[in-house]
Amino acid sequence: MISVQELSQRAKIAAGILKTVSGQRRADALNRMAGKLLECKDAVFAANAEDIAAAPGLTDAFRKRLQITEKVFKYMLNRLQEAAALPDPVGELLEGRTMPSGLQVKRIAVPIGVIAMIYEARPNVTTDAAAVAIKSGNAVILKGGSESLRTNKVLADAMRAAAVEAGLPEDTVQLIESTDHAVVGELLKQEKFIDLIIPRGGKGLIKAISEGTRIPVLKHYDGICHQYIAPDADANMAASLIVNSKCQRVEVCNALETLLVDTACAERVLPVVAEALRGKGVELRGCAQTQKILQDCLAATEDDWDTEYLSATLSIKIVQNIDEAMAHIAAHGSGHTDGIITSSLALSERFIAGVDSASVLVNASTRLSGGGDYGMGAVVGISTDKLHARGPVGPRELCSYKWVAIGSGQLRD
Amino acid sequence: MISVQELSQRAKIAAGILKTVSGQRRADALNRMAGKLLECKDAVFAANAEDIAAAPGLTDAFRKRLQITEKVFKYMLNRLQEAAALPDPVGELLEGRTMPSGLQVKRIAVPIGVIAMIYEARPNVTTDAAAVAIKSGNAVILKGGSESLRTNKVLADAMRAAAVEAGLPEDTVQLIESTDHAVVGELLKQEKFIDLIIPRGGKGLIKAISEGTRIPVLKHYDGICHQYIAPDADANMAASLIVNSKCQRVEVCNALETLLVDTACAERVLPVVAEALRGKGVELRGCAQTQKILQDCLAATEDDWDTEYLSATLSIKIVQNIDEAMAHIAAHGSGHTDGIITSSLALSERFIAGVDSASVLVNASTRLSGGGDYGMGAVVGISTDKLHARGPVGPRELCSYKWVAIGSGQLRD
């Protein structure tokens, strides 16, 4: 087994080659990866079954994350093919002008270089991350959870073979096979070779990684997402949006956690919304004013406003106006996704300008904040950072840029 | 004197207001700042004279950095007015589309929030940084060198007064007045309030800051810049470009440090280039092959290839071909600014694609890699990072963005 340092060095060499490989050839490699995975489907499922059998004391939730079902497998292949079909982000002219001196100045998207992905159980991250990284001309180092090592090894081997067939360096994709905990620490030290680390997983993992390295880390913290129901909101639209935001999938980062209701419409709208939520089995925890309107609602404590439930629980607070709603979001939100439900242009614009989150929504489910529903295709996560990438991270976000200036002997005065 | 924490908190509050202030009003504030500085010109010069008088054992170079001359003062005012006249980067529509569902998705530039600038002697950074930060809707915390504190205080007070007159929060600009070394450490801890730190100064300062904080740091390391003279280069154009790249100003980051000459043209071009450089008093240090052509050239050691002289010294290496030139730049360059001198389209394109630097130049002086000559107006420095901003950092680079999605009740399936 090669050392993490050598592996990182190999990734850097591969990145040096990848930056001059055409977009067509990178797309070809992604399509071949999907084809190669289909060829070795039996091996993937067999390795995955071994991983599941070997994992001790598996909870249902964990097994669900670890398991590659027919649906998940199909999705993994689709992601590779979808990424192949996207426009090439590399070489995109981001801006350009000819200066009075005749100097032609251009800002052009280029690959970042080497991206290390550190993640937990889900093996589909292995193919998703490779898809987005290779689409944008980067070499990728994968460090998945040790529980899915057998699965990841089959996936990575297939992708490496496909890369070679397409004329890309084999080390475009590399999997760290050691399950020794020390290897992550080693990886965090490779600032000479690795340009960006993307951790996926719980807050603890992300925090530990970003505090343990000098390499830039793109953070994907979880989301405490809000919807604010403005005075003029339609009760039925509000109910359907709140139910979808909360219930479409409860354990994800863009699921709704806190509902803010304007006092001017609370008595009219809240009972309709609560009825719809109860029909879905959602536990409601409200402020004192909420409890006056919804008698069977539990009492929310101060902690509730800062809690990401990731389960079928929703906190509800009645606010005096849009300013209190925005102040609550500023104080308790995580800057991920926050929405307003209103038919007022003025209120929607105040909310858009005043809420400092990666995604600000008007009359839309929080579950729509993501790559696919924004037309970005494959993404490797949703960034809550404000520097570099904010919100969904797709192929364009895994690019840097360079300035190119073409002259005919121009000097500085 | 308020604590660094309280000052940072005030900046955050100011940033919350600034993000909804119109571009017109921010431009007005910048113009008023220039006007106010002109009004208190005498006070600025008096404070600056006191700073210079109080600095013990001043070297000439240091005095030059510290002193505000008529020319520097005029430049400072111009920078504020130029920034005011630039297009507003805030609110720029970076991309947008309407999805099949009818969801209107937009990516819009927004201020980053609170930017802390840590810098050494030059007081013009005080106004430059404020100009760029305010142009992009950010609140700015200034921590200048203690030697220029009196000057900086007059500058900051004038800018604060002008901000208030324009209807901006007074704390849009704040100066840290304590000269206690511990305040920088305190500043580095304010991750709750500060969104970005920009250090300006020597490599040591930048390294210490970026290693001592969890706040994102935009690094402006110095430059080991190269020019590669390709086989077909015109000797006279090469000589004028090399002289300008090296001599126009020797102590800056985009000055030339190493000249790479293709062996195919070395005997033809190198004597012409060397003659021009000697006329400017430049000391030449060459590889063994160079010494065969230029008999009075000193011998370069391996260390020379990794040295940023920041003085009238140039290292010269003869390379076998463009690949060796690019390999040398990859091994010894700092990713700042590197150029090729050629009339070949094919060679220029190989160089542009193959050299991974913030600025890649063709037939242009390295001294042109910067904000003004790229048409960006005021900049706060030149980033050698690959994430977020790369190359010149102007108002657009001090913006983040948010996703805004406007719907009519769209749900996720």
Can you give a write-up of this model?
2 copies of one chain form a homodimer. Chain A has 413 residues and is α/β, with parallel strands linked by helices. The model of chain A has no long low-confidence stretch (mean pLDDT 95). At the A-B interface, β2, α10, α14, β13 and β15 of A face β2, α10, α14, β13 and β15 of B.
First-residue to last-residue Cα separation of chain A: 56 Å
Oligomer: homodimer
Helical element count of chain A?
14
Instruction: Specify the overall morphology of chain A.
Output: globular
Which structural class matches the secondary elements of chain A?
alpha/beta
In what range is the share of β-strand residues of chain A?
A: 15-25%
Task: Describe this protein with a few key phrases.
homodimer, four-stranded parallel sheet, alpha/beta
Write the layout of secondary structure elements.
The structure is a homodimer.
Chain A: H1 4-18, H2 23-39, H3 41-54, H4 60-66, H5 70-85, E1 93-98, E2 104-111, E3 114-118, H6 124-135, E4 139-143, H7 149-165, E5 173-175, H8 182-188, E6 196-199, H9 203-211, E7 225-229, H10 235-247, E8 256-262, H11 266-278, E9 283-286, H12 288-293, E10 298-299, E11 313-319, H13 322-332, E12 337-341, H14 345-354, E13 359-364, E14 382-383, E15 391-392, E16 399-410
Parallel strand pairs in A: 3-4, 3-6, 4-5, 7-8, 7-12, 8-11, 9-10, 9-11, 12-13
Antiparallel strand pairs in A: 1-2, 2-16, 14-15
Helix pairs in contact in A: 2-5, 2-7, 3-7, 5-6, 10-11
